[in-house]
Structure formats: structure tokens, C-alpha cells
UniProtKB/TrEMBL annotation:
Keyword Transcription listed: yes
Transmembrane segments: none
Alphabetized Gene3D superfamilies for the sequence: 3.40.50.1360, Winged helix-like DNA-binding domain superfamily/Winged helix DNA-binding domain
Residues in the signal sequence: none
Name of this chain's protein: Transcriptional regulator with sigma factor-related N-terminal domain
Keyword field: DNA-binding, Transcription, Transcription regulation
Protein family per UniProt: Belongs to the SorC transcriptional regulatory family.
GO MF annotation list: carbohydrate binding; DNA binding
Ranges where the Sugar-binding domain occurs: 68-307
Pfam families in UniProt: Sugar-bind (PF04198)
Length: 317
């Protein structure tokens, strides 16, 4: 490959990733290379100056602005983590620290705590140091990702701290065949864990946007299924469950493939901590807030600013 062709490849891959918000897996498929090659090309593009990244740190969110967001969203408590770092890993760690503090503070002594999986919640589970005795329920099946631990390890970690019973979901989150998924839900261990989600005292979940780069579930769904969900109005994803802009559950083919807590179960839960980050998830967070089950929302500053912008737009209409 000539130098000119290689530089063009660096530019195309970088454009796909940074401007089109495509995942490394999608880029790898379209260019017939591995995702590891994609990662190396992105690093090289930055080193050679083909990609320049500028980070404009936002101003801090005032207490008055947070109270306005709480009122507008209808959420009891909004926590804005001071994640002004330009490094995504560091920002995620700051959110995880805030989530870990809330898990410790709100964990129900003698009750039942349910938790889904996300990269932030995975890190948060490692940062939790103390829990009262309580049962721990896995709210979503496993979603294999590169470099992180899995939901079963998360559940075991918290169960060891709490000393209570654990209710793992021995299943993937997204099952390719709906018939297989239905069979898994009938398995006693899985059925028991899903039923336990009917009587949670506290749930911890993550909020994703239903679009490429906005949810780890998006890449696991078949193209027809995810596009059909978009056409049906899906804008948000929470534990594999989709919601529209009004906060209503979106019925789609994905529901038949998901092994996870339902929106109705979360709506019956007394306390729900939700974590999300990044400006691109503002519409998704607004949608989940309208579903009415989140009592504590933990976000980073860019997302808080984006939510404030949405609030101002709605109020000016």
C-alpha cells in the first residue's frame, strides 16, 4: 500500500469513528480489517496529526441548576460527577466512584438489591467497600465486551461484601434465537432471578441511547431488529429494554431476545439509581426520566449541560 493510500485509510477510519460515531467493529467489517487494526489506525492518526482532538472543559453546574434539572426531570436527586477530565477512562472512573458511594449509601439492610451491567457499574462494583447484609440480584444477562469483567463477577463481588444470597442470571443478555431465549427464561435458576426482580428495594441501572455508539446492546442486535425499533420510536435503552421519547416501553423483536429485568419491574421498585454519561445520551435520559422509575440520576458534566439545554428548549416553546 502506498503512503498516500495509507493516509487516506487513516483519514477514512478516523472519520467513521469520530465523525460518524461508528463502532470499531462496524469499521473493521466495512474496511475488511480487524477491530484491533482499527484501534491501531486511530492511534496512528492521532500521533501523525491527521486527527486533532480539542477538549473544551464546561463550567461547573451550580446547585440551583441541579435543582432545576431535578424538578424538570421529575427525579428526586440528580448527582453531577465532576468529570472534567478529557480522558474517557478517567471520566468513567469518576462516575463509577459516585455510583459506588450511592450504592453503599442506599443499599437496603435486610432487603434486595438488583444491579445491571455496564462499564461504569462494573468499575463501581470494584469501588464499593461496605454493604449491609442484603440479597444481590443480577438484572441483565451477560454482554461480552473486551477487557472488562462480566456481570457474574460483579454479582459475586457485591454478594461477598453483603454476605447475603446472590441471584445470578446464567444467560447472555441478547439471545440470537427467540425460541432459545424463551427456553432459557423457563430454566429454574433464570426464572428465579427474573422473578426476584419483582420485589427489589433498590435497583442500579445504566441508560444508553438507542443508536450506534450509544448503547452496547445496539451492536448485539440484528440490523433489522434495531432499525425496526428505531422506526417504532425507540430512543433509549436500559438493561436491554427500549423506551420512546414519551418514556413508554417500545415493543420490538428485541424483547423476545432479551434476558433482563422489565420496565414494569423497575417501575415497581422503590428506589432506582441510574447512571449515564455524554451529551449524546441527553434525549435518552429524558425519555427514561419520563418512564418514572429513576429516583437518583448520576451524570457527568457534559450530559448535565446537554440536559440543561434540552430543558431550556422545552421551556421556551
Amino acid at each position: 500500500m502506498s503512503e498516500h493510500s495509507h493516509e487516506e485509510l487513516l483519514a477514512r477510519v478516523s472519520s467513521d469513528y469520530y465523525l460518524e460515531n461508528r463502532s470499531k467493529v462496524e469499521i473493521a467489517v466495512s474496511h475488511d480489517i480487524s477491530r484491533f487494526q482499527v484501534a491501531r489506525l486511530l492511534t496512528e492518526a492521532r500521533e501523525r496529526g491527521i486527527v486533532e482532538i480539542k477538549v473544551h472543559y464546561p463550567a461547573h453546574i451550580s446547585a440551583a441548576e441541579i435543582r432545576q434539572l431535578e424538578s424538570w426531570l421529575g427525579i428526586r436527586e440528580v448527582i453531577v460527577a465532576d468529570s472534567t477530565s478529557g480522558d474517557e477512562g478517567q471520566a468513567r472512573g469518576i462516575l463509577a466512584k459516585a455510583a459506588a458511594a450511592e450504592i453503599s449509601r442506599q443499599a437496603p439492610a435486610g432487603g434486595t438489591l438488583g444491579i445491571s451491567w455496564s462499564r461504569i457499574l462494573d468499575v463501581a462494583s470494584m469501588l464499593v467497600r461496605d454493604l449491609p447484609r442484603c440479597d444481590i440480584v443480577q438484572l441483565a444477562g451477560a454482554l461480552p465486551t473486551e477487557g472488562e469483567s462480566n456481570p457474574l463477577e460483579l454479582i459475586q463481588r457485591l454478594g461477598h461484601l453483603s454476605g447475603g444470597l446472590t441471584w445470578p442470571l446464567w444467560s447472555p443478555l441478547v439471545v440470537e434465537d427467540p425460541t432459545t431465549a424463551a427456553g432459557l427464561r423457563r430454566q429454574p435458576e433464570i426464572a428465579g432471578a427474573l422473578a426476584k426482580a419483582d420485589s427489589l428495594d433498590l435497583a442500579i441501572v445504566a441508560i444508553g441511547a438507542w443508536k450506534s455508539g450509544g448503547s452496547t446492546v445496539w451492536e448485539r442486535a440484528e440490523a433489522e431488529v434495531r432499525e425496526a425499533a428505531v422506526e417504532a420510536g425507540a430512543v433509549a435503552e436500559c438493561s436491554g429494554r427500549l423506551l420512546n421519547a414519551a418514556g413508554a416501553a417500545v415493543e420490538s423483536g428485541l424483547d423476545e431476545q432479551i434476558i433482563a429485568v422489565t420496565v414494569k419491574q423497575l417501575q415497581r421498585t422503590e428506589k432506582v439509581i441510574a447512571v449515564s454519561h455524554g451529551r449524546a445520551r441527553a434525549d435518552a435520559v429524558r425519555a427514561v426520566a419520563k418512564a418514572g422509575f429513576v429516583t437518583t440520576l448520576i451524570v457527568d458534566i457534559p450530559l448535565a449541560r446537554a440536559l440543561a439545554d434540552l430543558m431550556d428548549q422545552e421551556n421556551s416553546q
